[in-house]
Amino acid sequence: MDSLDGLKAELLAAVTAAADGAALEEFRVAALGKKGRITGLMKQLGSLDPEARKERGAALNQLKDDIAAALDARQTALRAAALAARLEAERIDVSLPIRPEVTGRIHPISQTIDELTAIFADMGFSVAQGPDIEDDFNNFTALNIPPEHPARQMHDTFYLPDAADGTKRVLRTHTSPVQVRTMRSVKPPIRIIAPGRTFRSDYDMTHTPMFHQVEGLVIDEATHMGHLKGCLIEFCRAFFDVDDLPVRFRPSFFPFTEPSAEVDIGCARERGTLKLGNYGDWLEILGCGMVHPKVLEMSGIDSTRYQGFAFGMGIERIAMLKYGIPDLRTFFEADLRWLKHYGFVPLDVPNLAQGLTR
Asked: Which single residue of 38, 65, 100, 299 could bond 183 by disulfide (Cβ 3.0 to 4.6 Å)?
């Protein structure tokens, strides 16, 4: 056993001395690999008598476990040290004065919101906002979403503790509650867009727990489906800067609009790339429809006198399409290199007279 104690001390010292991951892996193979020192000792057990084999085998297994644990601990320490070194190397002191050669960048989400606001403002829309934390009525019930609807399930929605009065609260799953709040507080005619943050329980290349949407609402006595189509066709062509961009409307279903439609724009998919324009293929871009009479009534508007349309789209989605950003998650990773590549010069304020982007 004394020899094993000496071997253990030697091996543990070698683990501690490993300077990086490569050296640690080299040591692991030398100690625990098929031709390693401990493995070699294990192969000698067959020459011992049963009692000695049992005692020696237990000691070798304990030695093997101790060395494996030391390897894991050393690997964790090396990774932590490497991360600390990287963070130190990439550290930026944001309290320092800006260097003359460094220019800040506007985030693509902020730029896209400014672009779509410029387009809809030219059509007479104003911007409306609402809270991120909503009650169940504004987020679901007032939008004609029934209790059994999948959108209400826990795996889709972030539910919060009830308010003091027992009101159910959620992180809003869309910006539609802003439409409800506007209809309940403003007398028609109404013409608004509602950009803002929304929250759903999902995370992958095309979904994040927090994302941005913009929704539009028009309510008056004369608006019809033709006005909706004209508004969205004009928006799509202006935003993507393609004058002849094909736009089509497909029948769909949403609880809060009737009739409802999904909007596709023309595109081409070639060799893993996507190009927008009149190329014969289609890509879904947003949902829309005429506001359901039940939604009008629950918001205090006379559905026999007023009607209107609504639409909604993901801001990250249209930004990704326009600027060729492949992964939704990168919008929220705070990587300054990414922002430098995809960001916008602060003085390039979008407007229809000089162009949305320059």
From this structure: 299
Q: Are residues 120 and 240 in the same domain?
A: yes
Q: Which domain holds residue 292?
A: 108-342
Secondary structure string (H, E, C) spanning the chain: CHHHHHHHHHHHHHHHHCCCHHHHHHHHHHHHCCCCHHHHHHHHHHHCCHHHHHHHHHHHHHHHHHHHHHHHHHHHHHHHHHHHHHHHHCCCCCCCCCCCCCCCCECHHHHHHHHHHHHHHHCCCEECCCCCEEEHHHHCHHHCCCCCCHHHCCCCCCEECCCCCCCCEEECCCCHHHHHHHHHHCCCCEEEEEEEEEECCCCECCECCEEEEEEEEEEECCCCHHHHHHHHHHHHHHHCCCCCCCEEEEEEEECCEEEEEEEEEEEEEECCEEEECCCCEEEEEEEEEEECHHHHHHCCCCCCCCEEEEEEEEHHHHHHHHHCCCCHHHHHCCCHHHHHHHCECCCCCCECCCECCC
Judgement on whether residues 164 and 275 belong to the same structural domain of the protein = yes
pLDDT tens figures, 157-184: 888 898 888 888 999 999 999 999 999 9
Q: Is residue 103 part of a domain?
A: no
pTM (2 d.p.): 0.69
| 159-160: strand order across its sheet | 133-135, 169-171, 159-160
